[in-house]
Each structure stands twice: as C-alpha cells, then as structure tokens.
Write a structure and sequence with these properties.
250 residues; 79% helix; 0% strand; elongated
C-alpha cells in the first residue's frame, strides 16, 4: 500500500499528513460508535472490512487534496502530476465499486440486518465521494483547456495588433521620408503570456455547485438510510434481549 501511494502520489506534504491524521481519527471514532450496535459481530472479519474501508477513505482523501491543489495552482510537472492523479482516481473508483459490489452481494445473500449493512452504506458513500472527486478533476481539466484557449487567442490578437502598429509606423516613415528616432518600433515578441488577462470559464461555478449539491444529497440520503437501518437493528436486538430475559425469569 505504501509503495502504491508513493507511485501514484509521490511524497506527501506535511499539511496532507496533518489532514489525514485529523480525518482518520474522526473516521475511527465514528466507526467505533457505530460498532457498538453490532458488538456481537465484532471479530476478524470486521477488522478486515474496517481496514478495507479505512484504506479507501485515506486514498480518497489524498486524491481530493490533490484536486484542490490543482484548482489553486498549476503543477510544476504537469505530465507527471496528471498521470499520477488520473491513475489514482481510477484505482479509487474501481476499488470502491468492487467493495460496494461485494457488500451488496453479501447483504442480499444474508437477508438480515447485520454488520455488512453498515459497511454497505459506507462503501456507497465512499463511491459517491470518489466519483465526486473525479468529476471535479474533469471540471478542472476543462477549465484549464478553456483558459489556455482564451489566452492563446488573446495573445494572437495582441501580437497581430502590434504587427499592424509596426507596419503603420514603417509606412509613415516611408511616406515622410524621414526616421523618427524617438518613436520605438514595437516588437510582438515582447508580449508575455503572463500579461494576458482572460475571463476564464464562466460556467464553472454552476457546474461545481450542481455537482456539490448532487453529491451532498446522495451522501445525505445514504447516511440517513444507514442510521435508520442501524436504529432498527438496535431496536430488534433490544427487543430480543428483553424477550430472552423475560422468558428466563420463568
């Protein structure tokens, strides 16, 4: 796992490690609280599924952080950065879908409220988050393409305007038959891309907002269903325990 992380993400920055620790403690605490409902099923299989879930969450957090970095500033090595990020997002989605499929098949075969129901909804939320991160990455790529296209067009317009000014100055000099040393000839090569301002992709905000609303609504529905199933299982377990105690009293 560590070797795969180094291959797809490279060395992690200190801020990324700090964020992973904070989110990791929160995720472990949340899972431990939910585990109390299924305390009778805690065992080796639970530890395996919890490790698989936690691994998927950590992988998704790193990918989400790298997409945020891409949205804020261009990478130093674009080819290496995009290759690593594309592979990592693909692996994250494939891993989450595989775990989700396994959990669905297990729940369907068992057909009773067990620990796998909780993992089913967790893997579903994890899949939604991975798809959300991948969609944000695609939006960032589209924005970069739009900005590059607009910059190239503005740069070409600026250079064409400078060439027209240069031609006009030379024509005026030929007409007057004299050279004005105080008037400098403009050079189109003096125009730098950093000096070009473009409006950017105006529709990006709408796409990001729609994507966030869709992902947030989906995650909220899945988490709500998970809590309802967990409460139903807790009520069933409490009723069963009360019935057993009542029967034992006779």
């Amino acid at each position: 796992m560590f070797a795969l992380q180094r291959l797809c993400f490279g060395p992690l920055r200190p801020t990324e490690i700090e964020h992973l620790y904070d989110k990791g403690w929160f995720a472990v605490t949340e899972t431990c609280l939910a585990m109390t409902i299924f305390r009778d099923e805690v065992g080796a299989f639970f530890l395996v599924m919890f490790t698989a879930l936690f691994t998927g969450k950590v992988w998704g957090w790193i990918g989400d952080g790298r997409v945020e970095v891409l949205e804020q500033q261009p990478p130093a090595n674009p080819l290496l950065f995009h290759t690593r990020l594309s592979i990592s997002l693909f692996l994250s989605i494939a891993y989450d879908i595989w775990l989700l499929t396994y959990a669905v098949n297990t729940v369907v075969e068992d057909a009773r409220p067990t620990m796998m129901v909780m993992f089913l909804f967790e893997f579903a939320v994890l899949t939604v988050c991975s798809l959300h991160t991948a969609a944000r990455y695609v939006i960032s790529l589209v924005e970069q393409h739009v900005v590059k296209t607009q910059t190239r067009q503005r740069l070409e317009e600026r250079r064409r305007h400078i060439r027209e000014q240069r031609a006009e100055i030379l024509r005026r000099r030929d007409t007057e038959g004299a050279t004005d040393d105080n008037e400098e000839l403009p050079d189109e090569n003096d125009v730098d891309e950093m000096d070009i301002e473009v409006p950017g992709w105006e529709a990006k905000g709408q796409w990001v907002l729609s994507l966030d609303l869709l992902a947030g609504k989906s995650a909220k529905v899945l988490l709500g269903d998970s809590r309802r199933c967990a409460n139903r299982n807790a009520q069933t377990s409490s009723s069963l325990g009360y019935t057993l105690r009542f029967s034992a009293s006779f």
